[in-house]
Write a structure and sequence with these properties.
The complex is a heterodimer of chains A (about 350) and B (about 525). The radius of gyration of chain A is 22 Å and the shape is globular. Chain A is built from 16 helices and four strands. In chain A, about 75% of the residues lie in helices and about 0% in strands. In chain B, a hairpin with a 2-residue loop joins strand 1 and strand 2. The longest helix of chain B has 16 residues. Classes of the chains: A mainly alpha (about 350), B alpha/beta (about 525). Chains A and B meet through helix 11, helix 12 and helix 16 of A and strand 1, strand 2, helix 10, helix 11 and strand 20 of B. The structure holds adenosine-5'-triphosphate and magnesium ion. The site of adenosine-5'-triphosphate has 19 residues of chain B, from strand 2, helix 1 and helix 15.
């Protein structure tokens, strides 16, 4: 009898085979929950750094609240985009065209003609444009069998081109007061943009974790072949994932238009990188099959808190980008450790 | 290549002392003592999840034990990585080998030690000649060529590459983890000849298998694990199948399965295939009736899996028809097949059936999600009940249904695939090698389950290369060779000899010619 093994509780073999009850993990927490906790920890550290470097700002509750809302508002547009991106990545794909779709939807819904249809016309246009571009992406990838990277890269270029030609490379000002007011409206003391983000995140969470669509997304990304043989329409599902991402871009376009009361072809620059990075540090596997909406949200918040930290301290954005890059590398390294143990150990039974 | 070690015959090559290993919630090994002598074949048996693979992974340095130690030829050793174990002469041949798809067999074999000419250039000619020589020496030359690309190899050939790889350099201990599960009879013969040669050269051999027959053919001694503990060791000459089964399962189990519900077949054909021709099979016709178990057998490569893939719409059909429950159907994808009531549990569970990163629950409920949901919201209570029911019925060994499937032992993973289709309750159930890698106890459970499914009126088509399985299970047996049906036998007049005669209708059997 080995001395080091703690005397295990007297479980009979039959007990060890029980099939009910929660899986035993570290302290009863799932890996996702642990990772999210770690991100919350990072956020806390960032806030402490903020409080130490700007005691004046953090000393006053009102200013603290305002600053928190600033962070959340900054996170809102990219957050909505990231929710869609998270679905695409979990489903085994990638969408490089999100920034371009946001710009195109923004430009399209602020043309003079569209604006003449009023608020509803503008919102409808932005959502439809986003959805349709997403469907084209999905069609190219699922029916046309293009690699997601290539298809959405092409779309990224093409959508920006289209946006530039529609706008004549001009900044289009939004004259619609309702749209413009979204960014400055509060609901129960909370900025409307933040409320929109919360609603999208909540909807995304339910969709991913509670619906058949979410389950199928995970299955398709986890093992395409198995999903197909289990009777899932993988082609159509892939298509829907990109449509969903496009739709999120449409929503984001309205939010961004409201924030800047204008739209232009160059808007939402590099959103694809921010969204992918946020999803990945939030624990979504780039190879698909695993991911978390809450993690993505936390990823977005980490980035926007860092941005805010640099802004309140008047620091150069170059350094900020370097820090962001470092965080992405660190997050991917953590994933690789996990992944390596996975391929070398579990691939063999 | 191998060491003709002139070790004294009874020297202990490897001692495993008081080895224990826990995973979260599972005691995989508990205080295990095992010795292997040079020049001996030790068989390691035990149910699915008994800890066999875990033990081998500790030997190979893949896992670290929680306590206990390894002693190699009298010296205590610690293997922190597989490379260290390799250097010390300990080799493990895994159930599922890893092969680089884009390089040749020869390069795959010598992947760590490629011969070089003038510095860094790879000497391909010398390499191929060397591997060809090895292949001839070990009797695999008919089956494998050095220049085939890794990606084109069959499961059996991949296994052989893994074996060749293990034989390079100095070998003291070599362990095989269920090496024969994807091999045909002839390949098994070649493998056994090789194992005997290694044994005679003084290598210590550990052999893991669920197949009793093989144990009695090849092993000198048997060690049996149950729930992570060593329950006993026996000399093969002094034990019997019944005793080993009792040790493994902890109860008596009749070795031979007998159907209880034969003759439940009704006169209603649930799946009819008429003159089906595809790229791989020619002019196939058969019926599976409600309440019947139809066995489909033949040598590896006879086209059995390709046939069922075509039936479920996964491979294109050139001509011929498929009828389900009397209705002609055009199935363009497995999805169509699932919808009309055909379930297929494919042969390669990891590649084609399981989502390894997800839980048992997710994997079992995958094909019944829409039935479990209302307004597209999955009703999780019902889901958990359903999954628990099948997990219990199949006795899937898992700490909970929330365990990720990749953490289950091989046999339990297979049960998860079966549970998925049982939960779906299809009209026609196609099982491609349903008990590959499954232990005796679980096999018996799966057989009686198939029996019950048939009794309930499901038409079951079982593909299997294991003749005793087909003989015990099937009401009727069809045999294929080279993509054609060469004969049909009823349960009563089928024998192993008759099946083999049909399976090898035009082959020289004495020469070791395969395919
Ligand atoms: N990495 C892991 N994490 C958690 N549990 C594990 C892990 N690897 C193995 N186990 C558990 O340890 C036990 C022993 O598994 P092992 O793979 O050694 O079984 P086995 O005897 O090889 O079974 P089989 O005949 O099915 O291949 C099983 O209960 C399995 O679920
Ligand atoms: Mg095993």
């Amino acid at each position: 009898m080995s001395a080091t093994e703690a005397p295990a509780s007297p479980v009979s073999p039959a007990d060890e085979r029980t099939t009910t009850g929660p899986g035993r993990r570290w302290g009863g927490l799932s890996e996702t929950a642990l990772r999210n906790l770690a991100l919350v920890g990072v956020l806390v550290v960032l806030v402490i750094i903020g409080a130490v470097t700007r005691p004046d700002l953090y000393g006053d509750p009102v200013r603290v609240r305002d600053n928190v809302f600033t962070i959340l508002e900054q996170a809102s547009v990219i957050g909505v985009v990231t929710v869609g991106m998270t679905f695409v990545i979990i489903g085994g794909g990638i969408d490089l065209s999100v920034g371009a779709i946001v710009a195109l939807a923004g430009v399209w819904c602020t043309t003079v003609a569209t604006q003449s249809y009023g608020t509803f016309g503008m919102i409808f246009t932005a959502l439809t444009v986003g959805l349709c571009v997403g469907l084209v992406n999905g069609g190219l990838i699922s029916y046309g069998r293009l690699v997601p990277f290539i298809a959405t890269l092409a779309m990224m270029v093409a959508a920006r081109g289209l946006a530039a030609s529609i706008s004549g490379k001009q900044t289009q000002v939004s004259e619609n007061r309702t749209i413009n007011a979204i960014a400055s409206t509060d609901v129960l003391g909370i900025p409307l943009l933040v409320v929109i983000l919360a609603v999208v995140v909540a909807a995304g969470w339910v969709l991913l974790n509670r619906t058949t669509f979410g389950r199928r997304t995970v299955a398709v990304g986890g093992n395409r072949e198995a999903a197909r043989l289990a009777g899932i329409n993988v082609t159509r599902h892939t298509m829907l994932l990109y449509a969903l991402s496009g739709l999120c871009c449409g929503i984001a376009a309205i939010m961004l238009t409201s924030l800047s009361t204008s739209a232009q072809a160059g808007a939402a620059n590099l959103y694809e990188l921010d969204a992918i990075a946020a999803a990945i540090i939030g624990g979504t596997l780039l190879s698909g099959g695993r991911g978390s909406i809450i993690g993505s949200l936390l990823g977005v918040l980490v980035f926007s808190t860092i941005t805010n930290l640099f802004a309140i301290n008047n620091l150069a954005t170059e350094v900020q980008n370097m820090v962001k890059g470092g965080i992405i590398v660190a997050a991917v390294l953590v994933q690789q450790v996990r992944f390596k143990s996975l391929t070398t150990i579990f691939a063999r039974t | 290549m191998t060491t003709p070690a002139t070790a004294p015959p009874a020297a202990e090559a490897l001692c495993v002392e008081a080895l224990s290993k826990r995973f979260a919630g599972v005691r995989a090994l508990h205080d295990v003592h095992i010795d292997v002598r040079a020049g001996e074949v030790l068989a390691l048996m035990g149910e699915n999840g008994a800890g066999k693979s875990t033990l081998l992974k500790i030997l190979s340095g893949d896992y670290q034990p929680d306590s206990g130690r390894l002693v190699l030829e009298g010296e205590p050793v610690v293997f922190r990585t597989p490379a260290e174990a390799h250097r010390a002469g300990v080799r493990i041949i895994y159930q599922e080998p890893e092969i680089v798809p884009h390089v040749s067999v020869a390069e795959n074999v010598y992947i760590g030690a490629l011969p070089r000419r003038r510095g860094r250039l790879l000497d391909r000619g010398a390499l191929h000649a060397r591997v060809q020589a090895d292949l001839e020496r070990y009797g695999f030359a008919q089956v494998l060529r050095p220049d085939t690309l890794g990606g084109r190899l069959s499961a059996a050939q991949r296994q052989l590459v893994e074996i060749l790889r293990a034989l390079t350099g100095n070998v003291r201990v070599i362990a095989f983890d269920e090496p024969t599960s994807s091999l045909s009879e002839h390949e098994v013969d070649a493998l056994f000849a090789l194992i005997r040669r290694l044994r005679d050269d003084g290598v210590a051999i550990i052999y893991v298998s669920h197949r009793m027959k093989e144990i009695f053919r090849i092993a000198d001694r048997v060690a049996v694990l149950r729930d992570g503990r060593l329950v006993g060791q026996r000399a093969v000459a002094e034990t019997s199948e019944d005793e080993l089964v009792r040790m493994m399962v902890g109860r008596d189990l009749s070795a031979m399965f007998r159907r209880r519900h034969t003759g439940a077949a009704r006169d209603r054909s649930m799946l009819s295939v008429r003159s089906l021709t595809t790229d791989d099979v020619t002019d196939i016709s058969f019926d599976v009736r409600a309440g019947e178990v139809l066995g489909l057998t033949g040598l590896v490569g006879a086209g059995r899996s390709e046939l069922v893939r075509a039936v479920v719409g996964d491979l294109p059909i050139r001509s011929g028809r498929v009828l389900v429950d009397g209705e002609p159907v055009r199935l363009r994808s497995p999805r169509d097949a699932v919808r009309v009531g055909i379930g297929l549990a494919p042969e390669e569970r990891k590649a084609d059936a399981l989502i390894l990163e997800r839980t048992v629950r997710d994997n079992v409920s995958l094909a019944v999600l829409s039935r479990l949901s209302r307004f597209r919201i999955v009703r999780r209570g019902r889901e958990r009940d359903l999954v628990n029911r099948y997990v219990r019925q199949l006795d899937v060994r898992t700490p909970s249904v929330e365990q990720e499937v990749r953490r289950l032992s091989g046999g339990n993973q297979q049960k998860v695939v079966l549970a998925r289709w049982l939960a779906r309750r299809p009209k026609v159930l196609i099982l491609d090698e349903p008990t590959r890698g499954i232990d005796v106890g679980a096999k018996a459970e799966i057989y009686s389950l198939i029996d019950e499914l048939a009794a309930e009126g499901i038409a079951v088509l079982v593909i299997s290369s294991e003749l005793p399985e087909i003989l015990g299970l099937a009401d009727r047996i069809i045999v294929m060779q080279h993509g054609r049906i060469t004969g049909e036998l009823t349960h009563d007049d089928a024998t192993e000899e008759r099946i083999l005669a049909l399976a090898m209708a035009d082959q020289l059997t004495s020469e070791g010619v395969i395919r």
